[in-house]
Design goal:
The complex is a heterodimer.
Chain A: H1 2-9, E1 20-22, H2 24-28, E2 33-39, H3 41-49, E3 56-63, E4 72-79, E5 85-94, E6 96-98, H4 108-120
Parallel strand pairs in A: 1-6
Antiparallel strand pairs in A: 2-3, 3-4, 4-5
Chain B: E1 3-8, H1 14-31, E2 38-39, E3 42-43, E4 53-58, E5 64-72, H2 78-82, E6 98-105, H3 116-136, E7 141-147, H4 148-156, E8 161-163, E9 168-170, E10 173-181, H5 184-189
The chains are: A alpha+beta, B alpha+beta.
Chain lengths: ~130, ~200
């Protein structure tokens, strides 16, 4: 348990290739803040062309508050005419690579799947739509 | 029919240099409204030097319809000099195998008759030529400053991209720095040959 606990509390460190590598446990214990949320008509039009019934659409950005090596996650969203909001196709962008407890990379695909799983457990719906930090 | 050419500023014919600078003006200054230096509808900056590498796409009429600029990070480059705040606390990289991609566009100024599929194909053709040109000069990764829509597009074509740090507002527009890994994944989706492995099998 000692190693798990220290992994959970570890300060994010950037690897040689620019990824911030950490376990899902450590990631899910980070404190994120919404940094940006905005509507994007170009994205809405793009989604409509992809047959996604977007009435409104935009981007949302969360990050940790570290000055050095902040963890960044961002995603596109769309809203139906009845105001229900969904994650847009395309996954979640980040500077994170999840690793196993043994230290091995889980890979981009698994990292993205886990980011989606994490986000569905968060209150991620964009608030205060408008540019600004 | 799209044709792609590449060369340093020294190697490009004068007429192509002018056409390229005018295309960049129409796309980046007029259309995207980036705050960039421009003279007589020509956009160029302090990083456009005699040995700067360009990849240029021309349409069936011979008109410039896409461009990219590659700068080695062993010298001054855009992100490192002007936007280090986008690097999330990381010192600007300076390495022979890291090149900076900037001024990438396949946007058609004015009205475009391109279908979505044609626009995507044009984008991929220019990106593949850019990746190829970078690899030929020893790059194993690119670093770039871009808008979030471009990040989404790069991810959608399955290039191996990942963020350097969180986006920030530049001229009131969210911008971010991205890594583009020129690895097997990127080569595969760009239709480029895989790197030869140097290890000998015994």
């Amino acid at each position: 348990m000692g190693s798990l606990s220290s992994a959970c509390n570890a300060t994010p460190v950037r690897s040689f290739d620019g990824y911030i590598r950490l376990t899902f446990d450590a990631f899910s214990n980070l404190e994120f803040r919404q940094k940006l949320a905005w509507e994007d008509e170009g994205l809405r039009d793009e989604l409509i062309e992809e047959n996604v019934p977007a009435f409104r659409a935009g981007f949302c950005e969360w990050a940790t508050d570290e000055v050095s090596n902040p963890v960044s996650v961002g995603w596109a969203w769309f809203r139906l005419a009845d105001n229900r909001t969904f994650l847009a196709p395309g996954g979640i962008s980040s500077n994170v690579m999840f690793i196993a407890q043994s230290g091995y990379d889980l890979g981009m695909r698994k990292t993205n799947e886990l980011l989606r799983a994490w986000l569905t457990g968060e209150d991620w719906q964009p608030s205060g739509l408008g540019l600004g930090f | 029919m799209l044709t792609v050419l590449s060369g340093t500023r020294n190697q490009l014919p004068p007429s192509v240099k002018v056409e390229l600078a005018n295309y960049r003006y129409e796309v980046f200054v007029e259309s995207l409204q980036w705050q960039l230096p421009a003279v007589d509808r020509l956009e160029f900056d302090q990083f456009d030097l005699s040995d700067t590498l360009y990849i240029i796409a021309k349409d069936e009429f011979g008109k410039v319809c896409g461009c990219a600029r590659l700068l080695p990070t062993t010298r001054a480059y855009l992100l490192g000099e002007l936007f280090p705040e986008l690097l999330g606390g990381m010192p600007p990289p300076h390495a022979a195998d890291v090149w900076e991609l900037s001024r990438f566009s396949t946007k058609a100024p004015g009205c475009s008759t391109l279908s979505r599929a044609e626009a995507k194909e044009r984008f991929c053709r220019l990106m593949a030529a850019t990746v190829q040109a970078a690899i030929e000069r020893g790059a194993s990764r690119l670093i770039t400053l871009t808008a979030l829509g471009m990040e989404r597009l790069l991810r959608s074509i399955e290039l191996h991209v990942h963020r350097v740090g969180p986006p920030k507002l530049i001229d009131d527009k969210p911008m971010l720095a991205l890594w583009i890994e020129l690895d097997e994944q990127t080569r595969r989706v760009m239709g480029l040959p895989q790197a030869e492995r140097s290890e000998k099998r015994h």
